[in-house]
Specification:
By secondary structure, the chain is of the alpha/beta class. The chain folds into two domains: 2-251 and 447-477, Nucleotidyltransferase, domain 5 (2-Layer Sandwich), CATH 3.30.420.40; 311-400 and 489-517, no CATH class. Helices cover 39% and strands 19% of the residues. It is built from 19 helices and 22 strands. The strands form seven sheets. It has a seven-stranded mixed beta sheet with strand order 16-17-15-14-20-21-22, with helices on both faces. Strands 3-2-1-5-13 form a five-stranded mixed beta sheet. β2 and β3 form a beta hairpin. α11 crosses α12. The longest helix is centred in the first third of the chain and has 21 residues, at 50-70. It starts with a strand and ends with a helix. 49% of the residues are buried.
């Protein structure tokens, strides 16, 4: 049976996945392929071979076809969407040949360049920004820089291999260089300023203007090319299939969570924590806690990212789990989390710091000060201690969001995803701590490949000459199921506001604690 639908491709840090969804975006099957980092590099270096992404894509497509064949389904792909890890540096020469391994978002070699660009350009340029990586390359790999004629991201490279074009979705492009909201393109003045810095950094040659290296910026629904002969061979599909502009994983995740309107926040809790807020205007100034990119339609996104996510809470849960009988230690979460849900809002007076690692956005330069204070013989229960560990991470998000609040950015709804939704009732803790309604969507774990499929459908509808429906209206039309919703409780909001004030004072004392307990 032939089924029309959309192919979603997501190139993550550890592997690549594909899904095929029908016209109603019901996922019919998926496939996966894996790859690894380039071995033997120093600890701060993270590189991958783009050819490995292409090999993984072939493997994933073979697996997808096998699953569909077992179900008696033949794909009729109407459009293709692509997402991938943001902030990478993929360099190619004038003939389109890749110039060695790609440096990834987690490569830490250009922190100094990030600080330099932030100060010189007057806008936040984290070390993850591709432009920060390019400045490092100019200084440290001039032999590679001399040959470079094109620069893109992992998602952009896959799109190039499928279409032959050098285009990129505006969200992923914003992770390469700052976007100007008035033009919805790279900021022209900042490009000139960067070129002046690059000219001084290059040793003995004149680098091309950055605008000539960067891919063209495209928004959701715009032309991202069509499958060419090479792309058709790679995917085993006919030529001419429309391809949506390739996006970064964060914009794709926003799409998968159906988030597009100002005031909506996508909050994902895992090993790290991300809160992406749709803004109603550009952010003013520079905040160490807030990074910036764009949604697929170009709306500004303010991102608060925490390195210290649920790891501390999970550590405490597992500590109590080791007290369980040998055969039931795997049930630690099932045993402890109901106690967390039932614990008092103020955790019986216990406060915790979660800093097992550094937290750049809060000015914490190293880990080692994860701790509990305020424990006594009345409150030392698993529920109170684990809830205090969770609240520490939630409060760090509030601290990071403080500048957004001071500038009056709206926050109307939080859409919660990630590992925390395995205990859905914890959504109430988030609602009370932020005094904001929280929703958990059906299928909250479907991920960025689903966002890529959504972008593919939007591209197909726009390519078909349909009505010029806005991106926000398109996403709202695809809401399905019955979300789990939590409304802030007035008494809990008041209690947690007081706990947050105490936590803020504890974080202010963290440098003193760091000096006291660490060598």
């Amino acid at each position: 049976m032939k089924s029309q639908g959309y192919l979603g491709i997501d190139a993550g840090t550890q592997g690549l996945s594909v899904i095929f969804a029908d016209r109603d975006l019901r996922i019919l099957a998926g496939g996966e392929g894996s790859y690894a980092m380039v071995p033997g590099l120093p600890a701060e270096c993270s590189e991958q071979h783009p050819a490995d992404w292409e090999s993984a894509l072939s493997v994933a497509m073979t697996q997808l076809r096998s699953k569909l064949a077992a179900a008696g389904i033949e794909m009729d792909v109407l459009a293709i969407g692509i997402s991938g890890q943001m902030h990478g540096e993929v360099l190619a020469d004038a003939s389109g040949r890749v110039l060695g391994p790609a440096r990834l978002w987690c490569d830490a070699r250009n922190e100094a360049e990030g600080h330099e660009l932030t100060e010189s350009l007057g806008t936040k340029c984290p070390k993850r920004l591709t432009a920060s990586r390019w400045l490092w390359t100019l200084r440290n790999r001039p032999d590679v820089a001399r040959k470079a004629a094109r620069m893109t991201t992992p998602a952009g490279w896959i799109a190039h291999r499928l279409t032959g074009r050098w285009d990129l979705g505006i969200g992923d492009a914003a992770g390469m260089f700052p976007i100007q909201q008035s033009s919805l393109d790279y900021d022209a003045k900042l490009l000139d300023d960067f070129d002046a810095i690059a000219a001084r950094a290059a040793d003995g040659f004149s680098p091309p203007p950055l605008a000539e290296l960067l891919p063209k910026v495209r928004r959701a629904g715009e032309d991202g090319g069509t499958l060419d002969a090479g792309g058709a061979k790679l995917l085993g599909l006919p030529q001419g299939i429309p391809v949506a502009p390739a996006e970064g994983d964060q914009p794709a995740a926003l799409a998968g969570s159906l988030i597009a309107e100002p005031g909506m926040v996508s909050m994902s809790f895992g090993t790290s924590v991300v809160a992406n807020s749709v803004g109603d205007r550009p952010f003013h100034g520079v905040s160490r806690a807030v990074d910036h990119f764009c949604a697929p339609d170009g709306r500004p996104i303010n991102m608060v990212w925490l390195r210290n996510g649920t790891t501390w809470m999970n550590t405490v849960v597992n500590m109590f789990g080791r007290m369980l009988p040998e055969g039931s230690r795997g049930d630690a979460f099932a045993t402890v989390m109901p106690q967390v849900v039932a614990a008092q809002d103020d955790c019986g007076g216990i406060l915790s710091l979660p800093f097992t690692d550094d937290e750049p956005g809060l000015g914490v330069s190293r880990g080692g000060t994860a701790l509990f204070v305020g424990i006594d013989d009345r409150n030392a229960t698993p529920g109170n201690m684990v809830k205090a560990a969770l609240l520490a991470t939630v409060f760090n998000l509030r601290l990071g969001s403080g500048e957004l609040d001071r500038q009056g950015f709206p926050r109307t709804e939080i859409v919660l995803s990630g590992g925390l939704v395995k205990t859905p009732a914890l959504g109430q803790v988030i609602a009370d701590a932020f005094n904001t309604p929280v929703s958990i969507l059906d299928g909250a774990s479907e991920g960025t490949a689903f966002g890529a499929a959504l972008m593919a459908k939007y591209r197909a509808e726009r390519a078909g000459g349909g009505a010029a429906e806005s991106w926000a209206a398109f996403l709202s039309r695809h809401a399905s199921g019955t979300p789990t919703r939590f409304t802030p409780r007035a008494e809990s909001v008041r209690t947690l506001a007081g706990v947050f004030d105490r936590y803020r004072r504890l974080v202010a004392a963290q440098p003193t604690l760091d000096a006291a307990v660490l060598p």
